[in-house]
Amino acid sequence: MGVDHVGEMDTMLGIYRPDIGILTNIGYSHLGKMGSMRAIVHEKSKMFHESIEKGFVSEQNAFKPYIEKTRNIELDAFGRESTSGIHSITSQGMDGWLIAYKGLEIHLHAVGQHNLMNALGAIGVAQSLHIEPEAIKSGLEHFMPVGGRSRIIDGAITIIEDCYNASPDSTNSILDYMGSIPWNGSKRVVLGSMKELGQVSSKAHIELGRKILTLQPESVSLYGKETISTYDMLIQHGFDKPLFHTEDYDDLQQRVLTESRRGDLVLVKGSRSMAMEKLVPAIQSIA
């Protein structure tokens, strides 16, 4: 039940009123339309309507007390520390996560901390419905990411396709994941603008530059007006790898095709309006 403007959750609830609600994340996405973080929190919290039976939020969610007071509900937390039955979590790199749960090993075929947190939330909801551990394992192991959402595409060049949308939280998460993967070839980052961030847009794109500095990829290609802040920040801090910025898609594609080599790992990420998925078949054409 996604929202990007004030009043949209009311429309959603007019279509469907869930018995159980899980709030996966609250971040800067759509701040430009919403106007403030308080407005975002208030709008998303409407999901916990007056007749809902149970609600869940991430253990990292700082707005839990506000939501509980505003919606008169006691929320359950989920996460590494809060989801019961979790014994250990091990990264499997490009193969996702191994979750030790109630004596079982669950192989989650999805990458990134955000997908891990979603899985832990799903376990919490399933437990509240008294679903057996074996069924939880089966359900999670049958999950496969859809196109554009942290999908790994194997080939001469391996692509992390995360083009459905972009926010500071999701972009940082996928960059952290990319940085954690042992890789023999070069890691290349191709990022489109993060849209609808309003007054925090420039700051968010500068912070994106700081995240890239910690990753130190072999090359960075930036696309869109907003990413000039990222470009300037990297220049100012002496980023000495190939760095490119453009507002023209054809220029971006040509740059990526010129730089990419067999054995590379390429992240393609950007907001929906940037249509970054167009790059995927172009990259795949490299033999």
Q: Can you describe what's shown?
A:
The strands form 3 sheets. The protein has a 6-stranded mixed sheet, sandwiched between helices. Strands 1-2-3 form a 3-stranded parallel sheet. By secondary structure, the chain is α/β, with parallel strands linked by helices. The longest helix has 16 residues, at 113-128. The radius of gyration is 20 Å and the shape is globular. It folds into 2 domains: 8-86 and 110-138, 3-Layer(aba) Sandwich (UDP-N-acetylmuramoyl-L-alanine:D-glutamate ligase); 151-284, Protein-Tyrosine Phosphatase, Chain A (Alpha-Beta Complex), CATH 3.90.190. It has 11 helices and 12 strands. Helix 7 packs parallel to helix 8 and helix 8 (201-215) packs across helix 9 (228-236).
